């Protein structure tokens, strides 16, 4: 018995058995806790995207002067936030509106303004709170359930660098009459040739193209440059191609986020043509056209003055001086051509930041329609217009009808030859055009010249600006405005 008592062989086996049981339990508890954190991360993604979705809807409402108190706006914010939460794995059965700070398990609350945190009470923010309960396994002796709570806040803030130039290759249909960009790389979005110089201080130059030649510097020389300093950015969703060393301030950010076209959902065919005259109700007492006219462009003479709310059918060629009264003009089924050094299109009674002109390129054909573009030159030409600061088309000076037209519609491109002179204030919107800039467009009065195009080939020296857009009547500018705040 004494020998047996002192025999230690096999004593480690029960110790190992006891220790292994504890290790297995601790390991299981660690794995289970890890699963809780994985689920919390997934729920946080759902909350983040839900808050961003709600804030995007709020951004659109604010662009139309609405608030969260306006009829239906909050319900839309709430339902879209809940929809995005469900799309990312967190469905909820709570009907909107669902303002609350403590949602029940399995529910999503959407608050505008937020109820909690540093953004509480801010009407430009959307708060999303989620709650989920999970049963436990290894921890069930001590904790039968675990609550996984998440919260996210997205805010709509004025961008520090709105885009003065947005080049979006989201072309609606088929282009015709493409300019000859012989030296530009295939698939370019912005192509700078020779000594082109794009100057946009304080705002950004953005292209959404994801092509490797999205921004193409062809034949880069010492005069070829892009400048958005101070404060502006130059970004592309793709990459840059360059011959030589391009001169950009600041350095171009590649593979950047896409910036949405803020006008795409608004400037539809029906919206742009709602007030367009469709029958001739005007008189011509030389040199003035008066009334709501539908006039063939070939009937308009140099030295004439056109009254507002006129449809110019078949396009318009300006060879001398043509004066427009303040108001809206529709050029249907044709282009605006300003030819020769003596050709001038202007509004002598317009005032930057006050009365102005909007020219809309559209079509009256239900099939195989042609939406025109603008051509300046050869031999120069002068275009001197500013947008109206108020009204339906406030802040908009040259607009191409691109969205909501029949699939058989085609669009003409816009070109410049020689050295035309352009003084423009407001939005120049040609999303279905490849534009060829050879001149030096710039703003007058309130510094506001915003360009949205499908593609741009540049040999001139445009100066873009956004600092005076609010005074010019353009309150919605391209730019990433929604960010996560909490």
Describe the structure.
- This protein is of the alpha/beta class and 486 residues long.
- It contains five helices and 33 strands.
- The strands form four sheets. It has a 23-stranded mixed β-sheet that branches. A four-stranded antiparallel β-sheet has the order 1-2-3-33, with helices on one face.
- The longest helix is centred in the first third of the chain and has 52 residues, at 12-63.
- The chain is elongated.
Write a concise synopsis of the structure shown.
The chain has 486 residues and is α/β, with parallel strands linked by helices. It contains five helices and 33 strands.
Radius of gyration: 30 Å
Structural class, by secondary structure, is: alpha/beta
Q: Would you identify the regions where 5 or more consecutive residues have pLDDT less than 50?
A: none
Shape, principal axes of CA atoms: elongated
Strand content: 25-35%
Distance between termini? 72 Å
SSE layout:
Blueprint: H1 2-6, H2 12-63, H3 73-87, E1 107-111, E2 125-135, E3 145-156, E4 163-167, E5 174-176, E6 190-193, E7 197-199, E8 204-207, E9 215-218, E10 225-227, E11 234-236, E12 240-242, E13 247-249, H4 269-273, E14 281-285, E15 288-292, E16 294-296, E17 305-306, E18 310-313, E19 316-318, E20 321-324, E21 327-332, E22 336-338, E23 344-346, E24 357-362, E25 370-371, E26 374-376, E27 382-386, E28 396-400, E29 410-412, E30 414-416, E31 421-437, E32 449-458, H5 469-472, E33 482-484
Parallel strand pairs: 4-8, 4-32, 5-29, 6-9, 6-32, 7-10, 8-11, 9-12, 10-13, 15-17, 16-18, 17-20, 18-21, 19-22, 20-23, 21-24, 22-26, 23-27, 24-28, 25-29, 26-30, 27-31, 28-31, 30-31, 31-32
Antiparallel strand pairs: 1-2, 2-3, 3-33, 14-15
């Amino acid at each position: 018995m004494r020998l047996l008592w002192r025999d230690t062989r096999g004593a480690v086996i029960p110790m190992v058995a006891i220790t292994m049981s504890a290790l297995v339990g601790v390991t299981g508890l660690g794995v289970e806790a890890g699963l809780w954190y994985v689920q919390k991360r997934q729920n946080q993604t759902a909350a983040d995207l839900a808050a961003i979705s709600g804030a995007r809807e709020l951004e659109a409402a604010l662009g139309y002067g609405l608030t969260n108190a306006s009829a239906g706006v909050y319900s839309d914010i709430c339902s879209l936030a809940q929809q995005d939460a469900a799309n990312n794995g967190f469905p909820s059965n709570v009907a909107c509106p669902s303002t609350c700070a403590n949602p029940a398990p399995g529910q999503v609350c959407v608050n505008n303004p937020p109820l909690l945190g540093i953004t509480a009470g801010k009407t430009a923010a959307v708060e999303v709170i989620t709650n989920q309960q999970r049963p436990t396994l290894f921890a069930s002796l001590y904790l039968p359930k675990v609550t996984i709570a998440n919260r996210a806040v997205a805010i709509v803030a004025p961008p520090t660098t709105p885009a003065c130039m947005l080049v979006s290759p989201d072309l609606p249909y088929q282009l015709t009459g493409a300019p000859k960009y012989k030296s530009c790389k295939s698939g370019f979005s912005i192509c700078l040739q020779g000594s082109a110089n794009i100057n946009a201080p304080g705002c950004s130059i953005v292209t959404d193209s994801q092509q490797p030649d999205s921004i193409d510097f062809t034949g880069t020389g010492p005069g070829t440059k892009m400048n958005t300093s101070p404060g502006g950015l130059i970004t592309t969703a793709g990459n840059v191609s360059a011959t030589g060393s391009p001169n950009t301030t600041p350095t171009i950010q590649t593979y950047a986020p896409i910036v949405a076209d803020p006008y795409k959902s608004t400037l539809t065919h029906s919206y742009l043509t709602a007030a367009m005259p469709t029958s001739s109700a005007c008189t011509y007492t030389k040199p003035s056209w008066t009334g709501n006219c539908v006039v063939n462009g070939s009937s308009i003479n140099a030295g004439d003055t056109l009254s507002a709310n006129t449809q110019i059918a078949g396009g318009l060629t300006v060879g001398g001086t043509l004066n427009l009264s303040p108001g809206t003009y529709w050029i249907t089924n044709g282009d605006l051509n300003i030819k020769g050094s003596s050709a001038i299109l202007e509004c002598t009674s317009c005032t930057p930041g006050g009365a102005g002109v909007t020219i809309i390129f559209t079509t009256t054909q239900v099939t195989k329609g042609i939406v025109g573009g603008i051509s300046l030159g050869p031999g120069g030409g002068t275009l001197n217009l500013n947008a109206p600061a108020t009204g339906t088309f406030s802040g908009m000076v040259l607009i191409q009808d691109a969205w909501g037209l029949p699939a058989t519609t085609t669009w003409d491109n816009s070109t410049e030859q020689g050295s035309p002179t352009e003084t423009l204030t407001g939005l120049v919107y040609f999303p279905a055009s490849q534009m060829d800039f050879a001149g030096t467009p710039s703003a007058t009065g309130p510094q506001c010249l915003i360009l949205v195009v499908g593609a741009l080939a540049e040999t001139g020296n445009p100066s873009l600006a956004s600092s005076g857009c609010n005074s010019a009547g353009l309150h919605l500018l391209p730019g990433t405005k929604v960010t996560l705040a909490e």
